[in-house]
Design brief:
mainly beta; SH3 type barrels; five-stranded antiparallel beta sheet; 2 helices; 16 strands
Length: 170
């Protein structure tokens, strides 16, 4: 009975969180959906080739708040993917549930408009360069409310890596 209730709660969570979550599996270690987006908790996060400390370090992230996608779980380790598609394993306590996103653009020279309201006709309050990281406060109807150093406003959801298409974030 306990497993049935747990499954119903996860199904309700998936339905409420958007279509992308509906296809997510449940992590064997955390009980949370996999895949899912999280962020790096600290400025130095070692990414390993496998899920324990005996595996070599493949690279080192040096930026807290960077969004990553958890693609698998093994005990206290999480396999993550970054915005460039690189994958490796990190210890779970180095990750945060805080949602962040990286601004993406069609070309490296394009600036992405940040609006004062979730409406393409609303005032543009800033132009963001690709690669800017912001905290995601919420997303709905194709727009996300983001903030960072010196900016706050609404950006089109398709211009953020760190949220799924049509995902609702509250």
């Amino acid at each position: 009975m306990r497993h049935v209730i747990h499954s119903l709660v996860l199904i309700a969570f998936a339905a409420a969180s958007g279509a992308a979550w509906a296809d997510a599996a449940v992590g064997t270690a955390s009980g949370l959906p996999v895949p899912r987006f999280v962020s790096l908790k600290t400025d130095k996060v070692a990414v390993r080739g496998g899920p324990n400390k005996t595996h070599d370090i493949k690279w080192l992230f040096q930026r807290s708040g960077l969004p990553v996608e958890i693609t698998a779980e093994f005990e206290t380790w999480r396999r993550i993917r970054d915005a460039d598609g690189a994958e490796g394993w990190v210890y779970h306590s180095l990750l945060s549930g805080r949602r962040t996103g990286i601004v993406t653009a069609k070309s490296k020279d394009e600036l992405v408009s940040l609006h004062d309201r979730p409406d393409v006709e609303s005032a543009v309050v800033a132009k963001l360069e690709p690669g800017v990281i912001g905290r995601v406060a919420r997303c709905a109807d194709g727009w996300c409310r983001v903030s960072g150093r010196g900016f706050e406003g609404w950006v089109r959801q398709v211009r953020l890596w760190g949220v799924y298409p049509n995902e609702k974030v509250e």
